[in-house]
Design brief:
With about 300 residues, the chain is an alpha/beta fold. The protein has one domain: Ureohydrolase domain (Arginase, Chain A), CATH 3.40.800.10. It is built from 10 helices and 9 strands. Helix 3 (about 65-70) packs across helix 10. The longest helix has 18 residues, at about 95-110. The radius of gyration is 18 Å and the shape is globular. The structure holds N-(iminomethyl)-L-glutamic acid and manganese (II) ion (2 copies).
Protein backbone atom coordinates (compact mmCIF):
# COMPACT_ATOMS: atom_id res chain seq x y z
CA UNK A 1 0.00 0.00 0.00
CA UNK A 2 1.19 3.50 -0.83
CA UNK A 3 1.55 6.13 1.91
CA UNK A 4 1.89 9.85 1.13
CA UNK A 5 4.92 11.76 2.49
CA UNK A 6 4.70 12.53 6.20
CA UNK A 7 5.42 16.18 6.93
CA UNK A 8 6.05 15.50 10.64
CA UNK A 9 9.32 13.68 9.80
CA UNK A 10 10.84 16.81 8.27
CA UNK A 11 12.12 19.03 11.08
CA UNK A 12 15.49 20.24 12.33
CA UNK A 13 17.52 23.14 13.63
CA UNK A 14 16.42 26.43 12.04
CA UNK A 15 19.37 28.80 11.47
CA UNK A 16 17.67 31.21 9.05
CA UNK A 17 14.32 31.33 7.26
CA UNK A 18 15.61 33.55 4.45
CA UNK A 19 19.33 32.96 3.84
CA UNK A 20 19.68 29.97 1.53
CA UNK A 21 23.25 29.29 2.68
CA UNK A 22 21.76 28.30 6.07
CA UNK A 23 19.16 25.93 4.69
CA UNK A 24 18.74 22.35 5.79
CA UNK A 25 16.71 19.80 3.86
CA UNK A 26 13.60 20.10 6.06
CA UNK A 27 13.29 23.70 4.84
CA UNK A 28 13.49 22.92 1.13
CA UNK A 29 12.09 19.41 0.71
CA UNK A 30 9.16 19.02 -1.69
CA UNK A 31 6.38 16.97 -0.13
CA UNK A 32 3.74 17.89 -2.69
CA UNK A 33 5.35 16.63 -5.90
CA UNK A 34 5.21 20.15 -7.35
CA UNK A 35 9.00 20.52 -7.73
CA UNK A 36 9.32 18.32 -10.78
CA UNK A 37 12.81 19.76 -11.32
CA UNK A 38 14.09 18.21 -8.07
CA UNK A 39 17.40 16.48 -8.77
CA UNK A 40 16.90 13.95 -5.98
CA UNK A 41 13.86 11.86 -5.06
CA UNK A 42 13.32 9.61 -2.03
CA UNK A 43 11.03 6.58 -1.95
CA UNK A 44 10.70 4.49 1.19
CA UNK A 45 10.36 0.71 1.24
CA UNK A 46 8.78 0.37 4.69
CA UNK A 47 8.86 -3.41 4.54
CA UNK A 48 10.44 -6.04 6.79
CA UNK A 49 8.40 -9.00 5.55
CA UNK A 50 11.43 -10.19 3.54
CA UNK A 51 13.58 -10.10 6.67
CA UNK A 52 10.95 -12.09 8.58
CA UNK A 53 10.76 -14.68 5.79
CA UNK A 54 14.60 -14.87 5.86
CA UNK A 55 14.47 -15.73 9.60
CA UNK A 56 15.89 -12.34 10.56
CA UNK A 57 14.94 -9.88 13.29
CA UNK A 58 12.19 -7.51 12.12
CA UNK A 59 12.05 -3.73 12.53
CA UNK A 60 13.42 -2.54 9.18
CA UNK A 61 9.93 -1.38 8.16
CA UNK A 62 10.63 1.71 10.29
CA UNK A 63 13.96 2.30 8.49
CA UNK A 64 12.86 4.79 5.81
CA UNK A 65 11.25 7.20 8.28
CA UNK A 66 14.25 7.06 10.65
CA UNK A 67 16.53 7.87 7.70
CA UNK A 68 14.32 10.79 6.65
CA UNK A 69 14.38 12.23 10.17
CA UNK A 70 18.18 12.11 10.20
CA UNK A 71 18.48 13.50 6.67
CA UNK A 72 15.98 16.33 7.31
CA UNK A 73 18.40 18.18 9.60
CA UNK A 74 21.44 18.05 7.31
CA UNK A 75 22.63 21.12 5.43
CA UNK A 76 21.54 21.30 1.79
CA UNK A 77 24.53 20.72 -0.50
CA UNK A 78 24.97 22.32 -3.93
CA UNK A 79 21.44 23.88 -3.74
CA UNK A 80 20.05 20.46 -4.58
CA UNK A 81 16.28 20.11 -4.36
CA UNK A 82 14.94 16.90 -2.86
CA UNK A 83 11.47 15.44 -3.30
CA UNK A 84 10.01 13.00 -0.78
CA UNK A 85 7.77 10.59 -2.69
CA UNK A 86 6.41 8.73 0.36
CA UNK A 87 6.50 5.05 1.33
CA UNK A 88 5.27 1.67 0.19
CA UNK A 89 4.37 -0.76 2.95
CA UNK A 90 3.51 -4.46 2.88
CA UNK A 91 0.01 -5.20 4.10
CA UNK A 92 -0.72 -8.79 3.24
CA UNK A 93 -0.26 -11.37 0.52
CA UNK A 94 2.91 -12.23 -1.37
CA UNK A 95 5.99 -10.07 -0.93
CA UNK A 96 6.52 -10.07 -4.71
CA UNK A 97 3.29 -8.04 -5.12
CA UNK A 98 4.66 -5.36 -2.81
CA UNK A 99 7.97 -5.41 -4.71
CA UNK A 100 6.06 -4.92 -7.99
CA UNK A 101 4.04 -2.06 -6.53
CA UNK A 102 7.26 -0.46 -5.32
CA UNK A 103 8.91 -0.95 -8.72
CA UNK A 104 6.10 0.97 -10.49
CA UNK A 105 6.67 4.06 -8.32
CA UNK A 106 10.46 3.74 -8.37
CA UNK A 107 10.48 3.52 -12.19
CA UNK A 108 8.44 6.69 -12.46
CA UNK A 109 10.88 8.55 -10.19
CA UNK A 110 13.91 7.20 -12.08
CA UNK A 111 12.58 8.73 -15.31
CA UNK A 112 11.91 12.10 -13.66
CA UNK A 113 14.98 12.65 -11.47
CA UNK A 114 18.73 12.19 -12.06
CA UNK A 115 19.07 10.46 -8.66
CA UNK A 116 16.54 8.42 -6.69
CA UNK A 117 17.33 7.08 -3.22
CA UNK A 118 15.36 3.95 -2.39
CA UNK A 119 15.26 3.63 1.39
CA UNK A 120 14.73 0.24 3.06
CA UNK A 121 13.53 -1.85 4.53
CA UNK A 122 14.86 -5.35 3.90
CA UNK A 123 17.27 -6.11 1.08
CA UNK A 124 14.35 -7.44 -0.97
CA UNK A 125 14.29 -3.76 -1.98
CA UNK A 126 17.08 -4.63 -4.46
CA UNK A 127 14.87 -6.98 -6.48
CA UNK A 128 12.19 -4.28 -6.56
CA UNK A 129 14.89 -1.85 -7.76
CA UNK A 130 15.80 -4.33 -10.50
CA UNK A 131 12.14 -4.64 -11.60
CA UNK A 132 12.01 -0.83 -11.80
CA UNK A 133 15.22 -0.65 -13.82
CA UNK A 134 13.91 -3.23 -16.27
CA UNK A 135 10.97 -0.91 -16.93
CA UNK A 136 13.16 2.14 -17.42
CA UNK A 137 16.03 0.40 -19.27
CA UNK A 138 14.38 -2.59 -21.00
CA UNK A 139 17.13 -3.12 -23.59
CA UNK A 140 20.22 -2.19 -21.57
CA UNK A 141 22.52 -4.61 -19.76
CA UNK A 142 22.42 -4.17 -15.97
CA UNK A 143 25.49 -4.51 -13.77
CA UNK A 144 24.60 -4.95 -10.09
CA UNK A 145 27.03 -3.55 -7.51
CA UNK A 146 26.15 -4.54 -3.95
CA UNK A 147 28.19 -3.36 -0.97
CA UNK A 148 27.24 -6.08 1.50
CA UNK A 149 28.59 -8.59 4.03
CA UNK A 150 26.30 -11.18 2.38
CA UNK A 151 25.75 -12.60 -1.11
CA UNK A 152 21.93 -12.70 -0.72
CA UNK A 153 21.76 -15.39 -3.40
CA UNK A 154 19.56 -17.90 -1.59
CA UNK A 155 16.95 -20.04 -3.37
CA UNK A 156 13.83 -20.65 -1.31
CA UNK A 157 11.07 -20.44 -3.92
CA UNK A 158 9.85 -16.97 -2.94
CA UNK A 159 11.22 -13.45 -2.42
CA UNK A 160 12.96 -12.83 0.90
CA UNK A 161 15.64 -10.37 2.00
CA UNK A 162 18.20 -13.08 1.19
CA UNK A 163 17.19 -13.86 -2.42
CA UNK A 164 17.30 -10.61 -4.47
CA UNK A 165 20.48 -11.33 -6.39
CA UNK A 166 19.79 -14.97 -7.32
CA UNK A 167 16.40 -13.75 -8.56
CA UNK A 168 18.15 -11.20 -10.80
CA UNK A 169 20.68 -13.78 -12.03
CA UNK A 170 17.86 -16.29 -12.74
CA UNK A 171 15.82 -13.66 -14.62
CA UNK A 172 18.51 -12.02 -16.67
CA UNK A 173 21.30 -13.55 -18.76
CA UNK A 174 22.69 -10.08 -19.48
CA UNK A 175 23.07 -9.04 -15.83
CA UNK A 176 26.31 -9.23 -13.85
CA UNK A 177 26.85 -9.18 -10.10
CA UNK A 178 29.72 -7.69 -8.06
CA UNK A 179 29.64 -7.75 -4.23
CA UNK A 180 32.03 -5.69 -2.11
CA UNK A 181 32.63 -6.53 1.56
CA UNK A 182 31.79 -10.23 1.78
CA UNK A 183 32.37 -11.75 5.22
CA UNK A 184 33.79 -15.31 5.10
CA UNK A 185 31.98 -16.12 8.36
CA UNK A 186 28.71 -14.54 7.23
CA UNK A 187 28.12 -16.83 4.25
CA UNK A 188 28.01 -20.62 3.98
CA UNK A 189 30.14 -22.73 1.65
CA UNK A 190 27.03 -23.21 -0.52
CA UNK A 191 26.82 -19.46 -1.13
CA UNK A 192 30.53 -19.29 -2.08
CA UNK A 193 29.99 -22.28 -4.40
CA UNK A 194 27.04 -20.50 -6.01
CA UNK A 195 29.28 -17.46 -6.59
CA UNK A 196 31.85 -19.67 -8.36
CA UNK A 197 29.32 -21.42 -10.59
CA UNK A 198 27.35 -18.25 -11.47
CA UNK A 199 30.24 -15.95 -12.27
CA UNK A 200 29.58 -13.71 -9.25
CA UNK A 201 32.53 -11.35 -8.62
CA UNK A 202 33.26 -10.45 -5.03
CA UNK A 203 35.79 -8.72 -2.80
CA UNK A 204 36.18 -9.95 0.78
CA UNK A 205 35.78 -7.48 3.64
CA UNK A 206 39.42 -7.99 4.70
CA UNK A 207 40.59 -6.56 1.35
CA UNK A 208 39.41 -3.16 2.67
CA UNK A 209 41.42 -3.32 5.94
CA UNK A 210 43.91 -0.80 4.59
CA UNK A 211 41.44 1.20 2.52
CA UNK A 212 40.60 0.80 -1.17
CA UNK A 213 43.50 -0.61 -3.15
CA UNK A 214 44.24 0.31 -6.77
CA UNK A 215 43.39 -3.27 -7.69
CA UNK A 216 39.91 -3.06 -6.15
CA UNK A 217 39.32 0.40 -7.68
CA UNK A 218 40.23 -0.99 -11.10
CA UNK A 219 37.92 -3.98 -10.62
CA UNK A 220 35.00 -1.67 -9.82
CA UNK A 221 35.84 0.63 -12.73
CA UNK A 222 36.05 -2.24 -15.20
CA UNK A 223 32.75 -3.66 -13.96
CA UNK A 224 31.03 -0.28 -14.43
CA UNK A 225 32.48 0.08 -17.93
CA UNK A 226 31.25 -3.37 -18.95
CA UNK A 227 27.51 -2.69 -18.42
CA UNK A 228 25.08 -0.15 -19.93
CA UNK A 229 23.56 0.80 -16.57
CA UNK A 230 24.41 0.06 -12.94
CA UNK A 231 22.07 -1.04 -10.17
CA UNK A 232 23.78 0.23 -7.03
CA UNK A 233 22.71 -1.08 -3.64
CA UNK A 234 24.18 -0.73 -0.16
CA UNK A 235 23.40 -3.17 2.67
CA UNK A 236 24.17 -1.40 5.93
CA UNK A 237 25.34 -4.59 7.64
CA UNK A 238 28.55 -4.37 5.59
CA UNK A 239 29.71 -1.67 8.01
CA UNK A 240 31.21 -2.84 11.29
CA UNK A 241 28.38 -3.14 13.81
CA UNK A 242 30.27 -0.83 16.19
CA UNK A 243 29.45 1.97 13.73
CA UNK A 244 26.16 0.69 12.30
CA UNK A 245 24.35 -1.23 15.05
CA UNK A 246 20.87 -0.53 13.66
CA UNK A 247 20.62 -3.35 11.13
CA UNK A 248 18.74 -6.64 10.83
CA UNK A 249 21.85 -8.90 10.80
CA UNK A 250 24.88 -7.17 12.34
CA UNK A 251 28.38 -7.99 11.06
CA UNK A 252 31.55 -7.82 13.10
CA UNK A 253 34.90 -7.29 11.35
CA UNK A 254 32.94 -5.08 8.94
CA UNK A 255 34.11 -2.23 6.72
CA UNK A 256 34.77 1.21 8.16
CA UNK A 257 32.25 3.98 7.50
CA UNK A 258 35.02 5.93 5.73
CA UNK A 259 35.71 3.16 3.24
CA UNK A 260 32.00 2.75 2.49
CA UNK A 261 31.62 6.52 2.03
CA UNK A 262 34.50 6.54 -0.48
CA UNK A 263 33.12 3.54 -2.38
CA UNK A 264 29.57 4.93 -2.40
CA UNK A 265 30.66 8.40 -3.52
CA UNK A 266 32.71 7.00 -6.37
CA UNK A 267 30.06 4.56 -7.62
CA UNK A 268 27.11 6.96 -7.24
CA UNK A 269 28.94 9.60 -9.29
CA UNK A 270 28.86 7.38 -12.39
CA UNK A 271 26.44 8.52 -15.12
CA UNK A 272 25.27 4.90 -15.26
CA UNK A 273 23.84 5.13 -11.73
CA UNK A 274 20.38 6.71 -11.46
CA UNK A 275 19.23 5.04 -8.25
CA UNK A 276 20.78 3.81 -5.03
CA UNK A 277 19.01 1.52 -2.60
CA UNK A 278 20.06 1.52 1.04
CA UNK A 279 18.91 -1.63 2.83
CA UNK A 280 18.47 -3.30 6.20
CA UNK A 281 18.36 -0.19 8.40
CA UNK A 282 16.58 -1.33 11.56
CA UNK A 283 15.83 1.47 14.09
CA UNK A 284 14.86 -1.04 16.81
CA UNK A 285 18.56 -1.88 17.29
CA UNK A 286 20.03 1.55 16.56
CA UNK A 287 21.96 3.38 19.29
CA UNK A 288 21.57 7.13 19.54
CA UNK A 289 20.30 7.15 15.91
CA UNK A 290 23.86 6.60 14.74
CA UNK A 291 23.01 4.21 11.90
CA UNK A 292 20.26 6.51 10.61
CA UNK A 293 22.64 9.45 10.84
CA UNK A 294 25.40 7.54 9.08
CA UNK A 295 23.01 6.76 6.20
CA UNK A 296 21.97 10.42 6.02
CA UNK A 297 25.63 11.48 5.83
CA UNK A 298 26.31 8.84 3.16
CA UNK A 299 23.36 10.15 1.13
CA UNK A 300 24.66 13.70 1.36
CA UNK A 301 28.12 12.50 0.39
CA UNK A 302 26.69 10.74 -2.68
CA UNK A 303 24.69 13.86 -3.60
CA UNK A 304 27.86 15.92 -3.27
CA UNK A 305 29.85 13.48 -5.43
CA UNK A 306 27.18 13.21 -8.12
CA UNK A 307 26.30 16.89 -8.49
CA UNK A 308 29.56 18.65 -7.67
N1 LIG B 1 19.69 -9.80 3.82
C1 LIG B 1 20.41 -10.44 4.63
N2 LIG B 1 20.74 -11.66 4.39
C2 LIG B 1 21.63 -12.48 5.12
C3 LIG B 1 21.31 -12.59 6.59
C4 LIG B 1 22.33 -13.37 7.31
C5 LIG B 1 22.00 -13.62 8.78
O1 LIG B 1 20.81 -13.70 9.13
O2 LIG B 1 22.93 -13.71 9.55
C6 LIG B 1 21.59 -13.85 4.48
O3 LIG B 1 20.49 -14.27 4.07
O4 LIG B 1 22.62 -14.47 4.38
MN1 LIG C 1 23.90 -7.97 4.35
MN1 LIG D 1 22.00 -7.74 1.94
Amino acid sequence: MYLLPDQSLWSGRLDSEHESSHYRYFQTVDLTGEQSEAKVALLGYAVDEGVRLNKGRTGAAAGPDAIRQAFAGLPVVNHINVKDAGNIQHDSGQLISTQQEYAERAAELMTQHPMTFLLGGGHDIAYAQYLAMKQVFPHQSIGVINIDAHFDTRHVGESTSGTSFSQIIDDDDQAGYLVLGIQPSGNTRALFDYAETHDVSYVLAEAFDDGISDEVSAKIQQFIEHYDVILFTLCMDVIDSAFAPGVSAPAVLGLSSHVVAKLAGKIAASDKVSSVSIAEMNPTYDIDNRTAKLIAYLMNHMIQSKFQ
